[in-house]
Every structure is written in structure tokens, then in C-alpha cells.
Amino acid sequence: MTKVLGIDIGGTHLRWGIVEDKNVLCVEKIKSKDIDDFVEYISKIALDHPEIDVISIGIPGIVNNHKIMNVPNVEKLNVYDLKDQIEERTKKLVLIHRDVRLLFAYDLERLSLEDKPYVLAFYLGTGIGNVIKVEGQIVKGRHGFSAELGHIPITGNDKICGCGKVGCAETIVSGKALLELFHSKKLSGDFSDIFIQHKNHPLIHEFIEAFARIIAIEMNILDATTLIIGGGVANMIGFPQGKLNRLLASHLRSEELIAGLNIHYVDDSPMNSMIGASLIAKEYINENSHR
Ligand SMILES: [Zn+2]
């Protein structure tokens, strides 16, 4: 049975685990900023665990065919040939994907959506994570920059995004934007209760409406109706799923889209990405062993 070293590197933490089948055998977590050299750090874990067959890594940035193109929030992870360097040291197969691909693999499996040709996923966390599957294929784009939904420009929005551009969706729809709103408008109570304490506040309505609009943009372009919605913000207590569903339906182009709308809200456990890393690795091995 394949043993996979799953590694999920986020803006703040790196989490790794050894996964066999769907069992996560051990998990550890470290602050991403405490890692000086990712090649060395990951190679050491692999060499300390010789039972591992594959190393499956998710990163918070852009990946093109397992090469790292751009990681805005973890400077030292901008190692274009990370895969080759770790493979050289460990002699193990290394796979690198965008972090949301790990979650998506896990969600497709647990929701039994693997055979659905059209699925869109929206993970609303610190930013907006998006995965597009159309005609049975995950859309990656010419350079790996597809599905950067958080960075579509929004009319009337002149905020500067972490990516350096002006007006990106993420500056108004994201956990970061919600936290800023909470502080700048001096909303009462705890941030974690914002959707309960302020459920009728016009600013919360605007936030959900903005999220609905960007989802509707993607649905109207792609004519896809099966959605996965998750991430830290969508899992906050009192998150208004019903309101989001209604607002979303109000922006859809056709009756077919509205009638077919099938939204799966998913929980947000750190184990999800570990199991997803293992699923992606097994899929890769299966595909490549038949060639
Ligand atoms: Zn941006």
C-alpha cells in the first residue's frame, strides 16, 4: 500500500503528515517563516521516514506542471525546481500542486463527485481559493494561473491587493477583508461571531452579495452548476448560507443554471488537505502506471 508524505504549506503554517490509504498516521505543524530552506526541511522529513513512497506538496501560490511559478506570501518557497531538488536528494517521487487542489481532491472524493464533469470550488479563507473542473478536466491554464478568481478586477474598487494590482476581488471578499471591515467599522463583539452579532448589518449583506457576484461570474461563464463552498470564513459560526444561495441564484443567467444549482458546503479540517495530498498522489501513480 502506498505511503504518502502529504505536505500543506500555508502562508502561516506548514503541516505535514504520513498518509496510508485515508488514515493520517502522524501530523506535525511548524510556522512557515521558521523554515529557511524548504528543500532541506522537506528532504529531511522524507529521509527520516524511509517507508514513504511519494511526497505530495500543496503550496499557496502558482504551480505549472509541478514547477513553482509564484508564491507571494512565503518568500523562501519561490524555488522553481523544488521538485527536482528534493527528488535528487531523496530519490522519491515529488508532486507539487496549488494548495486548493489538495482540498478539492478530498472534497470530490468525500462528496462522491469524482465523475461529475463540471464542478467549481470556492474556498473562502484568508484569500479566495478557486478550482475549476470543466469537461472532466481541471483547468490549469497556459502558465498555471487559471482560477485566480480572487484577482479579478472589480469596478469601483480601488484597494491595492497583496499581489500588487488594484481592485482585486480579494480586497473586498476574503477573510482578510472581513477582518479589516470588522476593525475599521468598529463592529461590536468578537470577530468570530460577526455573522451572528451583525447578521442584519448592511456591510455584512454587501460582503455576502460581493461573494455571490464573483461566484455567479464564474458560473455564467462556464455554465457549471455543481459547487463546493468551504474555507475558514464559510465555516464561521452563523455564516449565512441561505442568503448566499439566494443572492447567487438571483445573478444566474439562465433558468437551467438556477434549477441545476447544487451547492455543497464543506467543513474545514486540517486533515482534509493531508488526505487530499494522498489522493492526488494515488491518482498520479494510477494514471502513469497505465502508460
Ligand atoms: Zn490581486
From TrEMBL:
Which InterPro entries does the entry mention?
Answer: ATPase_NBD, ROK
State the UniProt keywords alphabetically.
Answer: Kinase, Transferase
Q: Which domain of life is it from?
A: Bacteria
What Pfam families does its record include? ROK
Entry annotated with the keyword Kinase: yes
User: What GO molecular function terms would the record report?
Assistant: D-allose kinase activity
Q: Which protein family is named in the record?
A: Belongs to the ROK (NagC/XylR) family.
Protein known as: Allose kinase
Which gene specifies this protein's sequence? alsK
